[in-house]
Amino acid sequence: MICVINTLAILHKEKAMFQERLKKLRKSKNMSQQDLADELGISQQTVAKWESGTASPKNTAIVRLSSIFDVSCDYLLGNQKKISEKEAIEMLFGDDFE
């Protein structure tokens, strides 16, 4: 029973993370829900449902979203944090890299 509850909690957190990240990425590109819907060939209502958590995108839509926003599918789904180019360089080469 505890395992099921923990799994449901994790799924809820990941779904909330997707909603937040999608909305943030869309706004960072100065896109309206309609702009994104047009890019994906879907309705604005579908994008609104994704952002509110009342519906979830299919895997193919997640792949297209990751391409549009130049992020990984994992990032969209809340499995990793987005790091800056500077952070990536520091991780690879240390603080001495200039």
The helix/strand order is HHHHHH
Mean pLDDT across all amino acids: 80
Parts with pLDDT < 50 across at least 5 consecutive residues = 1-12
* Largest sheet geometry: none
Structural class: mainly alpha
General shape: elongated
- What is the total tally of β strands? 0
Q: Could you tell me the strand content as a percent range?
A: under 5%
User: Could you tell me how far the N terminus lies from the C terminus, measured between alpha carbons in angstroms?
Assistant: 52 Å
**Total DSSP helices:** 6
What proportion of the residues is helical, as a percent range? Answer: 55-70%
Question: Could you name the key traits of this structure?
Answer:
mainly alpha; elongated
Can you put this structure into words, describing what you see?
- The chain has 6 helices and no strands.
- The chain is mainly alpha-helical and 98 residues long.
- Helix 2 packs across helix 3.
- The longest helix has 27 residues.
- It is elongated.
- It starts with a helix and ends in a 5-residue tail after the last helix.
- The N terminus is likely disordered.
How do the helices and strands line up, and which of them pair or pack?
Elements: H1 2-28, H2 33-40, H3 44-52, H4 59-69, H5 73-76, H6 85-93
